[in-house]
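Technical annex, item 7. During the second reporting period the consortium partners agreed on a shared format for inverse folding records so that results from different sites could be compared directly. Each record opens with the tokenized structure and is followed by the designed sequence. A conforming record, contributed by the partner at site C, is shown below for reference.
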């Protein structure tokens, strides 16, 4: 989608909210304050990054008396255009006004922090102009200087505007704001860089991707693996797929990915801890997404390749002695196939980290649970391995430099070496 296409969509579609996201310096603010502003009609109210409002045309500010807008300067009433006469507030606008007044009362009584002052500036501006004739509201990073509590009120303001037939276009760097608004993927427009086209994908596209990937996974079923296979069933074309996607596409972790050009998908908690621990030393992105299992990674790699410039994944090899008959090993091979099509970078960790890093599980569990005290029981050891096993290699690379270097060497050897 070109930027001109996006402008046409904002002008002509029935959509009420447009979220513009992406990395810094990708041209978002320039688009909002120049390209879009020049293309829209005069019925616009614009909020800049500092929390200051301005309007495109020469409208005067108003006071609200009862259910009427009254212009501050009576001597100039009617001299510019019809909007300058005292005017009855229409039904939808009145709903906005009443709510905004309620919100303002809450924050007027609080200590005037920078965030409170900015939020009050926004609320006061919405009460200072005749909203009857304002159709478009443009917000440039409205979350700046706001804590979580005040970001919630930005979300409430947006909901209030769109529920009363206004259009909201906003730039944000806040996954939390997207999460509060529960923004649909169809309404998110990613600016990957200043020169690239805008990225926008629909829910239906992603749903088809999910179902097609699910079919592929279900066809990998090895002979005599019924019990193991059950946990890998992706359940495509079912109500579950709708439930899974509604949770995935509207949570903070997914929204966060959209602000990065590079995402690292990790298979599980072990890979997540190791990657995060070494991310600063390896100079890799800290946008780490935990897939929660290898069977989800095929879908997530394809999904994030639609939005991100670079996708890496951290997986267990799961292939022992060239035996590719198990589901995990077959999934590993399918992920390997994606390297060419998706320009994927793969970091493969040995399945047996204990041997690779040279540590004794029982000795580590002993130290973490009992220290130099009594010897741990077999029951405690087995419980720890079952519920906390991901902490074992994590502890080892934090305390053993030789082990740490071994893991770093794996990360320095990507099995693919090109980008797109």
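Designed sequence (site C submission):
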């Amino acid at each position: 989608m070109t930027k001109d296409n996006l402008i046409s969509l904002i002008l002509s579609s029935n959509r009420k909210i447009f979220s513009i996201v992406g990395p810094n310096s990708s041209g978002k603010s320039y688009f909002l304050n120049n390209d879009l502003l020049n293309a829209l009609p005069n019925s616009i109210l614009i909020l800049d990054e500092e929390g200051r409002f301005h309007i495109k045309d020469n409208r005067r500010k108003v006071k609200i008396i009862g259910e009427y807008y009254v212009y501050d300067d009576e001597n100039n009433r009617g001299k510019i255009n019809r909007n300058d006469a005292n005017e009855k507030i229409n039904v939808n606008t009145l709903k906005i006004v009443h709510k905004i007044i309620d919100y303002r009362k809450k924050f007027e009584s609080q200590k005037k922090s920078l965030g409170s002052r900015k939020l009050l500036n926004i609320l006061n501006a919405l009460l200072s102009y005749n909203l009857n004739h304002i159709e478009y509201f443009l917000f440039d990073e409205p979350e700046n200087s706001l804590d979580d509590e005040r970001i919630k009120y930005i979300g409430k303001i947006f909901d209030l505007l769109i529920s009363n037939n206004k259009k909201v276009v906003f730039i944000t760097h806040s996954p939390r704001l997207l999460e509060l608004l529960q923004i649909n993927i169809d309404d998110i427009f990613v600016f990957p860089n200043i020169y690239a086209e805008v990225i926008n994908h629909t829910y239906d596209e992603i749903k088809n991707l999910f179902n097609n990937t699910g079919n592929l996974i279900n066809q990998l079923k090895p002979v005599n693996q019924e019990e193991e296979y059950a946990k890998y069933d992706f359940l495509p074309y079912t109500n579950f797929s709708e439930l899974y996607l509604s949770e995935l596409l509207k949570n903070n972790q997914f929204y966060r990915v959209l602000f990065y050009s590079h995402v690292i998908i990790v298979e599980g908690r072990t890979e997540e801890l190791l990657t995060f621990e070494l991310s600063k030393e390896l100079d890799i992105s800290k946008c780490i997404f935990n897939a929660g299992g290898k069977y989800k990674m095929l879908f997530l790699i394809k999904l994030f390749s639609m939005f991100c410039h670079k996708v890496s994944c951290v997986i267990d090899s799961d292939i022992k002695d060239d035996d590719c008959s198990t589901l995990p090993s077959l999934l590993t091979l399918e992920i390997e196939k994606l390297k060419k099509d998706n320009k994927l970078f793969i970091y493969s960790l040995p399945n047996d980290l204990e041997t690779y890093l040279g540590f004794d599980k029982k000795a580590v569990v002993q130290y973490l649970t009992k220290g130099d005290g009594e010897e741990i029981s077999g029951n405690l050891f087995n419980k720890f391995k079952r519920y906390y096993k991901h902490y074992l290699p994590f502890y080892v690379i934090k305390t053993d430099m030789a082990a740490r270097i071994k893991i770093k060497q794996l990360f320095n050897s990507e099995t693919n070496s090109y980008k797109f």
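Residues 77-84, 416-420 have pLDDT under 50 and may be disordered. The longest strand covers residues 310-316. All partners now use this format for quarterly exchanges.
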